Amino acid sequence: MKAANLGVLFLIELGALAATAYWGFTLDVAAPLAWLLGIGAPAVLVVLWALFGSQKAAHKTRGAVRVVFELLWFGAGVAALFLAGATGWAVAFALVCLLSKALAVAWGQ
What is the DSSP letter of 28? Predict the structure, then answer.
């Protein structure tokens, strides 16, 4: 179960990136802006994760700061799905994130 949860943790990281890309590409805006947001939003999340979230982050976060960072980071994926009109997917993604993160804390992952 612990190994499976590590896989789920990785998949929800990818899911947050996919959600923000989906939001950007599905906006009712001019095509160049949709492309910019569809590529730019996940790119911003990648940079933030590299700086603050990854195991090899330049500025590793810990404790309460880590909790807030992850709430905002994964919350961006949930919000992107809501804003794109994928409410069911947003709720499902939020529940999977909460469950997987709770298990990770309980298991010290």
Answer: S
What residue type is 85 in one-letter code? G
Predicted confidence (pLDDT) per residue in 7-61, tens digit? 999 999 999 999 999 999 999 999 999 999 999 999 999 999 999 998 899 899 9
Which burial class, exposed, middle or buried, applies to 26 when counting CB atoms under 10 A from its CB (0-12, 13-18, 19+)? middle
Query: Could you give the CA distance from residue 65 to residue 57 in angstroms, rounded to a whole number?
Result: 14
Taking the C-alpha atoms of residue 38 and residue 17, their distance in angstroms, rounded to an integer, is 10
Residues in the chain: 109
**Positive or negative: CA dihedral 53, 7, 64, 19:** positive
